Amino acid sequence: MSDVRIGVKKLVPEAQMPRYAHVGEYGDLAADLYASEGMVIAPGATVLVPTGLAMEFPSTHGALVEDRSGLAVKGVTTLAGVIDPGYRGEIRIVVTNLSAAAVEVRQGDRIAQLRIVRRIEAEFVEVAELGEAKRGAAGFGSTGVR
Q1: What one-character DSSP code corresponds to residue 33?
Q2: Domains annotated on the chain, with CATH
Protein backbone atom coordinates (compact mmCIF):
# COMPACT_ATOMS: atom_id res chain seq x y z
CA MET A 1 0.00 0.00 0.00
CA SER A 2 1.26 3.47 -0.88
CA ASP A 3 2.07 6.28 1.54
CA VAL A 4 0.58 8.74 -0.96
CA ARG A 5 -3.22 8.85 -1.24
CA ILE A 6 -4.87 10.86 -3.99
CA GLY A 7 -8.60 11.47 -3.86
CA VAL A 8 -10.24 10.95 -7.25
CA LYS A 9 -13.75 12.18 -8.05
CA LYS A 10 -15.55 10.91 -11.14
CA LEU A 11 -17.28 13.86 -12.79
CA VAL A 12 -19.05 11.69 -15.38
CA PRO A 13 -20.07 8.01 -15.22
CA GLU A 14 -17.82 7.18 -18.22
CA ALA A 15 -14.66 8.27 -16.38
CA GLN A 16 -12.11 5.58 -15.55
CA MET A 17 -9.82 5.63 -12.54
CA PRO A 18 -6.10 6.02 -13.30
CA ARG A 19 -4.41 2.61 -13.31
CA TYR A 20 -0.89 1.23 -13.37
CA ALA A 21 -0.58 -1.50 -15.97
CA HIS A 22 2.31 -3.09 -14.06
CA VAL A 23 2.69 -2.90 -10.29
CA GLY A 24 5.15 -4.25 -7.75
CA GLU A 25 8.92 -4.10 -7.53
CA TYR A 26 9.44 -3.31 -11.23
CA GLY A 27 6.09 -1.61 -11.81
CA ASP A 28 5.26 1.38 -13.98
CA LEU A 29 6.49 4.88 -13.23
CA ALA A 30 3.16 6.42 -14.30
CA ALA A 31 -0.53 5.47 -14.27
CA ASP A 32 -2.66 5.46 -17.41
CA LEU A 33 -5.25 8.20 -17.93
CA TYR A 34 -8.32 7.50 -20.07
CA ALA A 35 -10.44 9.66 -22.37
CA SER A 36 -13.97 10.07 -21.04
CA GLU A 37 -15.34 10.94 -24.48
CA GLY A 38 -14.39 10.20 -28.06
CA MET A 39 -13.16 12.68 -30.65
CA VAL A 40 -11.19 12.97 -33.85
CA ILE A 41 -7.99 15.02 -33.69
CA ALA A 42 -7.26 16.63 -37.05
CA PRO A 43 -3.69 16.81 -38.37
CA GLY A 44 -1.88 19.71 -36.69
CA ALA A 45 -4.71 20.29 -34.21
CA THR A 46 -4.32 20.83 -30.46
CA VAL A 47 -7.32 19.77 -28.38
CA LEU A 48 -8.35 19.16 -24.78
CA VAL A 49 -9.22 15.53 -24.12
CA PRO A 50 -11.41 15.21 -21.00
CA THR A 51 -10.75 12.47 -18.47
CA GLY A 52 -13.92 13.11 -16.47
CA LEU A 53 -11.83 13.12 -13.28
CA ALA A 54 -10.88 15.67 -10.64
CA MET A 55 -8.17 14.90 -8.11
CA GLU A 56 -7.16 15.96 -4.63
CA PHE A 57 -3.41 15.73 -4.14
CA PRO A 58 -1.79 16.10 -0.73
CA SER A 59 0.10 19.40 -0.36
CA THR A 60 3.36 17.45 -0.69
CA HIS A 61 2.66 16.07 -4.17
CA GLY A 62 1.46 16.98 -7.65
CA ALA A 63 1.63 15.28 -11.02
CA LEU A 64 3.06 15.51 -14.52
CA VAL A 65 1.12 14.40 -17.58
CA GLU A 66 3.33 12.41 -19.94
CA ASP A 67 3.02 10.95 -23.42
CA ARG A 68 2.08 7.35 -24.03
CA SER A 69 4.75 5.84 -26.26
CA GLY A 70 2.17 4.07 -28.44
CA LEU A 71 0.53 7.40 -29.30
CA ALA A 72 3.78 9.38 -29.51
CA VAL A 73 5.10 7.07 -32.22
CA LYS A 74 1.95 7.96 -34.20
CA GLY A 75 2.66 11.69 -33.74
CA VAL A 76 0.23 12.34 -30.87
CA THR A 77 1.90 14.19 -28.01
CA THR A 78 0.84 15.89 -24.79
CA LEU A 79 1.56 19.49 -23.79
CA ALA A 80 1.11 21.65 -20.66
CA GLY A 81 1.19 18.72 -18.29
CA VAL A 82 1.68 20.06 -14.76
CA ILE A 83 -1.00 19.46 -12.13
CA ASP A 84 -0.43 21.48 -8.96
CA PRO A 85 -1.53 20.15 -5.55
CA GLY A 86 -4.16 22.87 -5.11
CA TYR A 87 -5.93 22.29 -8.46
CA ARG A 88 -9.34 20.65 -8.07
CA GLY A 89 -10.83 20.99 -11.57
CA GLU A 90 -11.20 18.35 -14.25
CA ILE A 91 -8.00 16.81 -15.52
CA ARG A 92 -8.06 17.53 -19.23
CA ILE A 93 -5.16 16.45 -21.41
CA VAL A 94 -3.71 18.94 -23.92
CA VAL A 95 -2.97 16.82 -26.99
CA THR A 96 -1.42 17.80 -30.32
CA ASN A 97 -1.56 15.66 -33.44
CA LEU A 98 1.76 16.17 -35.23
CA SER A 99 0.98 13.57 -37.90
CA ALA A 100 -0.45 14.14 -41.38
CA ALA A 101 -3.51 11.99 -40.63
CA ALA A 102 -6.50 12.46 -38.34
CA VAL A 103 -6.35 10.37 -35.15
CA GLU A 104 -9.47 8.93 -33.56
CA VAL A 105 -9.67 8.80 -29.78
CA ARG A 106 -12.46 6.61 -28.47
CA GLN A 107 -14.08 6.86 -25.07
CA GLY A 108 -12.04 4.67 -22.73
CA ASP A 109 -8.81 4.90 -24.75
CA ARG A 110 -5.61 5.43 -22.79
CA ILE A 111 -4.66 8.99 -23.71
CA ALA A 112 -1.72 9.87 -21.42
CA GLN A 113 0.19 8.87 -18.31
CA LEU A 114 0.08 10.49 -14.88
CA ARG A 115 3.42 10.62 -13.04
CA ILE A 116 3.11 11.55 -9.36
CA VAL A 117 5.91 13.83 -8.16
CA ARG A 118 6.98 15.18 -4.80
CA ARG A 119 6.59 18.96 -4.57
CA ILE A 120 9.76 20.83 -3.74
CA GLU A 121 9.68 24.57 -3.22
CA ALA A 122 13.14 25.84 -4.08
CA GLU A 123 14.62 29.17 -3.13
CA PHE A 124 15.98 31.08 -6.14
CA VAL A 125 18.98 33.22 -5.24
CA GLU A 126 20.56 35.72 -7.62
CA VAL A 127 24.34 35.29 -7.85
CA ALA A 128 27.06 37.23 -9.68
CA GLU A 129 28.82 34.08 -10.93
CA LEU A 130 28.03 30.38 -11.26
CA GLY A 131 30.37 27.65 -10.06
CA GLU A 132 32.43 25.66 -12.56
CA ALA A 133 31.15 22.35 -13.93
CA LYS A 134 32.56 19.95 -16.53
CA ARG A 135 29.70 20.55 -18.94
CA GLY A 136 29.80 24.31 -18.46
CA ALA A 137 27.64 26.30 -20.86
CA ALA A 138 27.47 23.56 -23.53
CA GLY A 139 23.80 23.19 -24.36
CA PHE A 140 21.39 20.99 -26.31
CA GLY A 141 23.29 18.36 -28.30
CA SER A 142 26.54 18.96 -26.40
CA THR A 143 27.00 15.25 -25.65
CA GLY A 144 27.72 14.60 -29.32
CA VAL A 145 24.59 12.51 -29.88
CA ARG A 146 23.10 13.25 -33.29
Answers
A1: E
A2: 7-118 (2.70.40.10)
Q: Phi and psi (nearest 5°) for 72?
A: -60, -40
CA quadruple 14, 18, 24, 28: dihedral, nearest 10: 120
2 phi/psi in degrees, rounded to 5: -85, 150
Alpha-carbon distance of 77 to 111, in angstroms, equals: 9
pLDDT digits (tens, 9 = 90+) for 100-132: 999 999 999 999 999 999 999 999 999 999 998
Q: How far apart are CA 103 and CA 85, in angstroms?
A: 32
The candidate with the shortest Cα–Cα distance to 68, out of 100, 24, 115, is 115
Range 53-67 average pLDDT:
97
Q: How far, in Å, CA of 15 to CA of 63, rounded?
A: 19
d(CA 84, CA 117): 10
